[in-house]
Each structure stands twice: as structure tokens, then as C-alpha cells.
Task: structure prediction
Amino acid sequence: MTMLAQRRRPMGQWARMLACSAVSVAVLTACGSGEEEARAPVAQGDSAPQTAEAPLQVGFMYVSPIGDGGWTYQHELGRQAVQAKFGERIATSFVESVSEGPDAERVLRDMVGQGKQLIFATSFGYQEYVQKAAADAPQVKFEHATGYKQADNVAVYDSKTFEGAYLAGIVAGSMTRTNTVGVVASVPIPEVVRNINSFVLGAQSMNPAVQAKVVWVNEWFSPPKEAEAANTLINGGVDVLYQNTNSPAVLKTAQERGAFAFGKDGDMSAHAPKAHLGSAVINWEPYYTKVVQDTLDGKWQGGNFWWGVKEGAMDLVKIADQVPQEAKDRVATVKAGLRDGSFAVWTGPIRDNQGNEVLAEGVVADEAFLRSINFYVQGVEGSVPGTGQ
Result:
């Protein structure tokens, strides 16, 4: 992932930073633009449960501003939820707008130096920097969102955003009048390609005639580029848009142009209510609660955790009134199937857009397949960047 904003400290914030040092060590304080620091003492003992006298120090590193309305905002809501839940047993802090480059490693090492015992790095492009920092700080537990590289003190976790994309697709298929839907895509990694395809599969489940166009912006958070991509798609005949970017720019553009769109990661309904068909929302609170509780109990374990509708980590919310009841009913049925395991988004027969069968009839994709998708499904125009497929 790439990053736009760098943290700055305007005039007047230096005084506030000095004031922070006088605050009680147990209090979470904000010191500077884009950063909040926990001043609580460091708990001793790697595996022993935490005590009231030694709050667990927890840090969060974000790739975009907490006000992005989507990806980072939802992580921030998760941080706030666990802080409220565990109270004085933990002290949380965050650094926002950290680019996916050397600055990420600097921030991670700074967190370690501050005494953080549990660190959440919430963007794919942080992966190599997490590995480097973790290797030099075996006493610290690292959690990397959307990554795949693990270590003794590094776990990876993700939300099944493709389930939300499929649910949004069901609505899109019922609402398109041009039979052409579009996706504003961020970075061409399997996660994003999987979401594009899942959205299209959902749309085709309601309307087999649906075709799809994709415009890549190669950034996670760039409202101007997102808006430009949305305009390009609408100019190309798209009347319903999805996105895999972090701001509400696509939704706002859709409203300006008389098209429909979805919120992504967070509830974006308030940004463009006339265009909003629903928001595919991630809820990080269940996972963050589990990890913090396990760490407090001295039971933290590494691994690969991928939660979705079943675990309460993914949902499609605020479905618009104008969406046909048939689509709403189908969304409810699919949600129920995802919860009880009777439905899987990626079930064959599925072909790529070259006509090749990628899943035979009745075959359910396993995790290895899902995590390595690098093709477009039938009906999607063009090819995945860098693959020719």
C-alpha cells in the first residue's frame, strides 16, 4: 500500500507535547498531529497475566488518517472499543498516516522503544517492516493485518471483505440499468482482486448479464484519484460503483453524477445518501477484543486469523429503501448461509474472463486458492495489472 500524508507538527503543538509529560503515566494522551502516546509503565514478564498496576501497552499503526471514513476509521473504532472495554488494564495509542516504506519501520521501532507490548500494524505494505522489527524485539507481540508472513511473535489477521463485496454485488445486480457495474480499485494484490471478482459474482447471481469495468488508482487513500476513477467509469456507462479504496470520494462522485455506489469498510451513508445503496462494513472489535484478552491472560498465540460474517467481523448495512425486496431477501439468505457454513461465495462453476474454468461445478475454493487469486472472473473487462490475465 502507498501513503499520501506524512505526520506534521504545526506551531503551537510543541507546547501541547510538553504539557503531555505532566499527565499521569496511566492516562492516554495525544502528543502531536497523527499520534497518541500511552505513558503508562511497561508491564514486566512476557507470559505472565497483566495486573492493574501494569497496564498492557498497545500500539496501533495506521496507513491513512483516522478520519478516512473507511479502513483506518474502522480500525480506530476497534481501538476505542477495546480501550473502553478493558479500561485501566490497558493503555492504547496510535500513529496515523504512516506510509508503507522505511517510515513504517521507524514507527514500529519507536513503539517498541516506548514499551509497547502488543502492536497492530494495519496495512499490507507494512509486512517486511513488521518482520524486521519483530526479529529484534522477541518480547513484543506483533499483529499484521492482511499479511501472510508469520513468526514466533507475529500473527496475521484479516477480515473476509470479499463476503461484504459479494453482498454488495447482489444489490448492485438488482439496481443496474445499464448492466455495467464498476470498481475503483486500489493496489493489485490478491485481496483486492478477490473483492472485485466477488462483487461481480454477487451482481451476476441476480443478473447474469452484468459486465464490469475496473479502474486502478494504485493508492489506498487518494480522494482526488478515486473521484477521477469514478468519473471515468461513469463516463464508460457504469451506473453502480464499488470501491476498494479508503475514502468516500467514489460515493460522493456517484451522487454528483446521478449514479449509485457503496460505502466500503465503514458506514459511509451520510456522505452521499442519495447514491448510497449500502456499506460493506468491517468490525474489528471482536478480533481486537480476543487478542487483547489473550495477551492479558498470557495466552497470546501466533497464527493466521481470517474472520468474516460468521464471526461478526463483516456485514452489509444500511441497504437503501429503493433496493428491490428480492435483493434484500437474497442478502439475508446469503448472510445466514455464511454464518452457518451452508453457503460459500467461491463455489464452482466459475470461469475467468478468458473462458478457463478455475473452479469446477460444486467445488468450494480453499483458503490457498482464495489468497492467490490473480485473474478476473468472466464478465470483467481487461486484465489484472502485471499478470496479463
About this structure: Residues 190-206 form the longest helix (17 residues).
